[in-house]
Design goal:
The protein is an alpha+beta fold. It has helices at about 1-10, 40-45, 75-80, 90-100, 130, 195-200, 205-215, 270-285, 295-325, 330-345, 345-355, and strands spanning about 15-20, 35, 55-60, 60-65, 70-75, 85-90, 105-110, 120, 135-155, 160-165, 170-175, 185-190, 220-225, 230-240, 240-245, 250-255, 260.
């Protein structure tokens, strides 16, 4: 998705692009859903690639619960915006981007990389091209796996995203889908790596009971409507995001999206960071001096400096929050929940934090 977005942004600036598209996976159910912020929506709308309302549900409110009564509430109305974020069906978004690419004459879809002044690697966290370039990818693994699924709730979600932290550092998120008064939710459950296989092995009825209990019956009984998926969690960052092609000093490369960085999913910022990479790289290329190549090293270093700082800030914030609930020494549980209640009352600080998560400069 990051690659297609970048290709569309560059083509809009009259830059010819060869887009490498991997073969489509046939027959595999795609249960992914992403939280996209205002900046990402604005970007995708400018490319005519934003999904319709049936596949992009507005988050009007977000409730975050601690393990001992702490709670933080974020409200779109208090922020004076239409939505805090939108929960987007990945298949619908991918189709919108694919359609936009198909109608852009300056984008040529290819199956293998072609020689070019600039190669942008958007292959994801397991990028083989990044490895071939000799880039170190520093990975910090969490002792957790994420479990994802689609659920049907007994009650309407009312456009509210809900999240619970427990005293083991586990995080449960229920993200609204299917419109403002729908009953479909996307599950993202970050659990201990030893517990994940047990939950995945449970029958549907047993898993439904476990997820209903973990969500404190907030939406009534929850029922699986999809298969369950799981993956190990980690945060990572590449030591270099740009450089010259080995043995080809006139050609350059850059990393974007998960090929450059990953963060813990608890803040729902992964794809937002990748789309911001695409926007930043397209912007430096758009505003380059007329005599500079799109692969000019100075341009690419400017992109790397700008994005690395933002990504590092988000990575440290999500890691700190996860670590805060992963330890239970002495008074720490009481203190973190007291802190949540205090933060919930600090309107100015909370408004600033919300604006940052929305991708707005406040």
């Amino acid at each position: 998705m990051v690659g297609r977005t970048l290709a569309l942004l560059l083509a809009r600036e009259r830059v010819r692009v060869a887009l490498v598209v991997p073969p489509a996976t046939q027959g595999k159910e795609d249960i992914r859903a992403y939280a996209l912020n205002t900046a990402s929506r604005t970007l995708l709308e400018s490319l005519r690639a934003w999904p319709d309302g049936a596949h992009a549900t507005a988050v009007r409110e977000m409730l975050v619960h601690g393990d001992e009564g702490g709670r933080v509430q974020f409200s779109a109305a208090r922020q004076k915006v239409d939505a805090l974020a939108w929960i987007v069906d990945v298949p619908a978004l991918e189709q919108q981007l694919a359609d936009a690419v198909r109608f852009q004459p300056l984008i040529e879809v290819v199956t293998e990389p072609v020689a070019a002044p600039l190669t942008v690697v958007c292959e994801g966290k397991a990028s083989t091209t990044r490895e071939a370039l000799g880039v170190s990818y520093e990975v910090t693994r969490y002792p957790q796996h994420a479990i994802a699924a689609r659920l049907e709730a007994e009650q309407s979600h009312d456009g509210i995203a809900r999240q619970w932290f427990n005293d083991k550092g586990e995080v449960l998120a229920l993200l609204p889908l299917g419109g403002a008064h729908g009953k479909t939710v996307a599950l993202v459950w970050s659990v201990d790596q030893l517990r994940a296989p047990e939950l995945l092995a449970q029958g549907n009825d047993e898993f439904n009971a476990a997820i209903t209990e973990a969500s404190h019956n907030a939406l009534g009984a929850l029922k699986l409507t999809s298969k369950r998926g799981a993956w190990p969690l980690a945060r990572a960052i590449a030591d270099r995001w740009t450089g010259a092609m080995p043995g080809q000093p006139t050609r350059s490369w850059a990393l974007a999206g998960d090929a450059a960085h990953t963060v813990h999913p608890l803040a729902g910022q992964g794809l937002n960071l990748g789309l911001a990479d695409a926007a930043a790289l397209a912007d430096v290329i758009k505003n380059r001096d007329y005599w500079r190549s799109v692969g000019d090293a100075r341009l690419l270093r400017r992109y790397e400096r700008a994005r690395r700082a933002d990504v590092l800030q988000m990575s440290l914030a999500t890691d700190g929050l996860q670590q805060l609930f992963a330890h239970n020494l002495g008074p720490l549980p009481a203190l973190r929940n007291w802190g949540m209640r205090g933060f919930d009352r600090t309107r100015l600080v909370k408004r600033w934090i919300t604006a940052q998560a929305m991708g707005l400069k406040a």
